[in-house]
Prior knowledge:
Two copies of one chain form a homodimer. The first copy, chain A, has helices at residues 5-12, 21-25, 47-60, 111-119, 137-143, 150-153, 188-192, 226-238, 251-261, 281-297, 309-320, 322-329, 345-358, 385-404, 423-442, 459-462; strands spanning 17-18, 40-42, 64-67, 83-86, 93-97, 102-105, 123-124, 160-166, 172-176, 201-208, 210-211, 215-223, 245-250, 271-279, 302-305, 332-336, 362-368, 373-380. By secondary structure, chain A is an alpha+beta fold. In chain A, a hairpin with a 4-residue loop joins strand 17 (362-368) and strand 18. In chain A, helix 1 packs antiparallel against helix 3, helix 9 crosses helix 12 (322-329) and helix 13 (345-358) runs antiparallel to helix 14 (385-404). The radius of gyration of chain A is 23 Å and the shape is globular. At the A-B interface, strand 9, helix 7, strand 11, helix 8 and helix 10 of A face strand 9, helix 7, strand 11, helix 8 and helix 10 of B.
Amino acid sequence: MSLPFKKIRSIVGNENILTLPEDLSCYSFDASKMRFVPEGVAFPADAAEISSLVRLANEHRFPVFPRGAGSGMVGACLARGGLAIVTNRLNAILEIDVDNMTAVVEPGVVTGDFQKAVAKFGLFYPPDPASLAFSTIGGNVAMCAGGPRAVKYGVTRDYLLGLEMVLPTGEIIRTGTRTMKGVVGYDLTRLMAGSEGTLGIFTKIILRLIPAPESVRTMTAAFSDLDQAVSAICGILRARIIPSTLELMDQTTISVVENHLRIGLPVAAQALVLIEVDGPEAILDAQVAAIEKVCQKSGADRIEAARSEAERNRLWQARRSISPALGRIRPGKINEDVTVPRTKIPELVRSIAALAKKYDLTIVCFGHAGDGNIHTNIMLDRRDESERRRAGKAVEELFAIVLGLEGTLSGEHGVGIAKSPFIELEVGAGGLDAMRKIKHALDPLNIMNPGKMFVPDRSFLDGSFV
Amino acid sequence: MSLPFKKIRSIVGNENILTLPEDLSCYSFDASKMRFVPEGVAFPADAAEISSLVRLANEHRFPVFPRGAGSGMVGACLARGGLAIVTNRLNAILEIDVDNMTAVVEPGVVTGDFQKAVAKFGLFYPPDPASLAFSTIGGNVAMCAGGPRAVKYGVTRDYLLGLEMVLPTGEIIRTGTRTMKGVVGYDLTRLMAGSEGTLGIFTKIILRLIPAPESVRTMTAAFSDLDQAVSAICGILRARIIPSTLELMDQTTISVVENHLRIGLPVAAQALVLIEVDGPEAILDAQVAAIEKVCQKSGADRIEAARSEAERNRLWQARRSISPALGRIRPGKINEDVTVPRTKIPELVRSIAALAKKYDLTIVCFGHAGDGNIHTNIMLDRRDESERRRAGKAVEELFAIVLGLEGTLSGEHGVGIAKSPFIELEVGAGGLDAMRKIKHALDPLNIMNPGKMFVPDRSFLDGSFV
């Protein structure tokens, strides 16, 4: 179908709509590397314009696809025809309230910029998805973004207090509060966190802030056995220390990164754990000593603690180099962010090693061990049809393993298109039915971000990639 | 209508159903002191029986009213005819997983008992509603219970990871995860927190735990001016110290309690603040010193720090004695738990003092100042019709004041029957409509806890009290 461009132009203005193929192409992908081309891309200025666009969409029955920075991992923002609505013009930090430790932002504010803005007041917005230098708060809320700090600080939903939003039928509503407490009516605010642009387009976001931690300490520990690493992780938490970072690299990851960097990583180790603690300066040395003791007791081979910012950067270098290093071993990857209770990490990583062997694949595991969120990268060359098919089978088996370990298919990336064939495995027929009913109640014409979450779509596994 | 008792008996067994007026009477009220009598009270054993009861209700079109310990403040559990479903037989702590810091409980577990059970493992479940000695986790989740510790630790929703529940149409579903992260589908788990028994009956609850804090310090500070007290509270938080308790008593409260206890409270003070910090022993003395400095700088008249458990109990005695003391000055009260951004507390408390004068009422303000949750008790004798009418007017004006201060009508008590006439004032027509649509989508026959939240009911203001 063709969009009513004349009416769309009259809402957003001529200069805020794209329709040329070469322009549309720039908005046809996200970090999933899937590709779908919208018919038009609109850049509304405010909530009123978004509301008008959505009402027009209901009237003319065309789909709208909310889009932030396009950094999502599962194709949740991809426009399959219809109108992409990009929120990047709504990019003001409207308010930072130091005494109440809250902020009000528009959805197009870049997460990293926001963190810097609040840091000037000694405040801290903890969620730290890897994309934070370019991803926006609106997208972070829509996907309920996480990051390494979640083990101590939680995820985006834990800092979300309220919203102004445009519903799929065009009404503008306000949800939530400016306070930590608030129980008037259903919690629409938290329902929206992770709703992936299917239930509304956010136009203002009220966020909770916390005091910035005074200091930080960084260390790494290498283990010749995965169980030892996880025993150390649990031991640290049992010692009442909650690190702000507890990142794990498995043996394959260590090797891949060492081949890339040549910095003397312990390639024989089965696990390398990066640990960071933050908080009052007065307690950190004692915490580092306690962590060293726990790691030694668990059988760590090598423990390094940074004594300077330069050393800290060196310890982080391996973790930060994983993605570029992976790019060198294979042109493509399927990046799953499965999550299991942390004690089950050894079983998960071992099962994945067995899968890699079974399907003759390289699978690299690393990620947020403190909260059990293990990024599982199945390396592949998508031009190799056999490899692609084997990878697809490995993904399906991986999901069965994860659910068997009482885990979740996605800790922080979401469903979008990529995981839509598998959602029912986790939430069950009854859960999926309840979700569909909510979707239908708020979006009876299925106008907002259709084809995501609920519609099993195997295109992610079968091709159609940039 | 008459309930199909024969079928109900066949589901729960003869010994698990009450029908005699004198028995029903015991289940006709909650802490709101409103009174409505159910036709029957059922005590199912498990999720399957609850599911059967709910399916029967859909078939025979009778309402069901989920009920925990009946300690709610707004009548949310009251059964107006129909069948009360009491969850107290589902009272097992099914699992405490020390290494993953999670627990699985049934809804009938008493919150205080659960806290003691996890404390044995060095773990901590922070939510601490005043009713915790008898209220149950199921009710706490349904109402999203808070408490004094919320300023540092958050509320029930912040510890809720997943649910097993019976939907209003009888299906048993599982929601959420056992991990901090999890973004597969809509967040039904958090939608249920605070849904007040209108969207489902919980049968299993997965909770997040944290390490127990090592130590605690308690102190009080008296101020001759409200602004000074709030400036001190903001100053403490600006100094990067987040107390686990920041309780405020206004001048009326101090007088009422002193008249009751005669322990030498500073009756001339405009505000008495109870402050507690917890965490690693190594930092607490420095935090107490820093807090003293902030309080002095803000103009505190008298600062006391507990040096022993006995002294700590003495400092808490005033706070704990508020409710019994209030009972001595007037037989009844309307207890509102309005919440405003904390910097607006002075304006709120002064406006309330003006209201008290205008309507010739005694209004007592105290509560959780750190998160702006001020319990506003309008004292009254319900037999005095004039006083009741004046109190009703004061409540309506109070709500307008609170919303004008960007606050919320309820921080932790909820809507139930008591606040149902006012919900639209806060959430707006569009917000209320979205909530009603969700309710209708999941409960098309309006079987589960009807007459709450969405149905304006002024009985709370007009009478019908025990």
